[in-house]
Every structure is written in structure tokens, then in C-alpha cells.
Amino acid sequence: MKKTGFKLQPGQVNMMKLRYCPVVGCAVVSGGSVLLVKRSQQVAFYKGYWSGPFGFLDDQKTVRQKVLEEICKEIGIQKKDMISVAVGEPFASENKRGRKVFIVFPVKVEIRSKEIKIDWEATSYAWVENVSLSKRRVVPNFYRVLARFGIS
After folding, report:
1. CA 118 – CA 53 distance, rounded (Å)
2. Cβ contacts of residue 135 below 8 Å, gap of 6+?
3. pLDDT of amino acid 11
4. Which of 23, 53, 116, 120 could be stapled to 74 by a disulfide with Cβ–Cβ 3.0 to 4.6 Å?
5. pLDDT, tens digit, 9 for 90 and up, residues 108-118
6. Is residue 10 assigned to a domain?
7. Total domain count for the chain?
8. pTM of the model
């Protein structure tokens, strides 16, 4: 197995061995723009694609708790810097190449500032007003996350 920047912590489930994987998919918005992060070559799925922060629901945390953790870890935003967090209706999405079915819990996070700090899971980021017009290769699930909140 290829080495990544991820290290399994006590209490976490190794999602790489499971067919069905619950994940949170975050649409981070600020001032009418949506955050896109370019996924690094160290992540397990969709290397080099653009999306919002995603994370496995691989422990006993609630969706909301996991979102706060992922947003803090992946883009350096603290709870105090968030205006709102909304959780949408989950959906299933199959990744045939990885033989996985992701159960995606879409979340919209509105933040106060566009100043972020990415971690190892991303190589760069961009704020865009319309993701579908950005001409970037976007993780397919991310369009569905955006649609749950009426974002394009």
C-alpha cells in the first residue's frame, strides 16, 4: 500500500478495507465564493482533482464534530471563524475504480475570511464564484454536495 500523510489513530476504522464508506463533503463558502482545494498525490482517492474538504467518518464523532475537525485540520479554520454549518441530505456515490461506495454527508460551511492554510491533503487552493465554470477537474461527488445547497 502506498504511504500517505494519514496515520490511523486509536478508535478510528481503516476505511480502505471497507466497500461502503461514510464521508463528509464540505462546501466552504465566503463572500459569494466557493473554496476549491487541489487534492495532493498523497490522498487515497481523486488525486489531483479539485473539491472542497472531504473526510471519512471513521470514528465515533458526529457529522458536525467531524466537519469541525476536518475544516480545522485541512484548511486551518477554527469554529470561531465559522458563520454557519448546515448539513444536507446524504447520498450514495460509487467509485468504480476504487470499488467503493461513498455515503456522502454534504455540508455547507460559511466562513468569515478567505484566508486559509492548507495541509498535506492539498497542494493549492482557489476561491471561485462558479465551480462549474472554473475549468478544473472536479471530484464528481462535489457537484452533488454543491447542488444540495443550491450552489453552482
Report:
1. 10
2. none
3. 66
4. 53
5. 999 999 999 99
6. no
7. 1
8. 0.86
Task: Specify if 15 maps to a domain.
Answer: no
Q: Under a CB-based contact definition with an 8 Å cutoff, are residues 138 and 52 in contact? A: no
Residue 146: strand, helix, or coil: helix
Which stretches does DSSP call E strand in 42-99?
50-51, 54-56, 82-87, 91-95
* Phi, then psi, of 142 in degrees rounded to 5: -65, -35
Ranges of the chain with pLDDT below 70: 1-6, 8, 10-16, 98
Residue that has been written with the C-alpha cell 485541512 in this structure: 74
Residue 7 domain-assigned? no
CATH number, residue 142: 3.90.79.10
Amino acid code (one letter) for 122: A
Specify the pLDDT at position 17: 74
Question: Domain span at residue 83?
Answer: 32-148
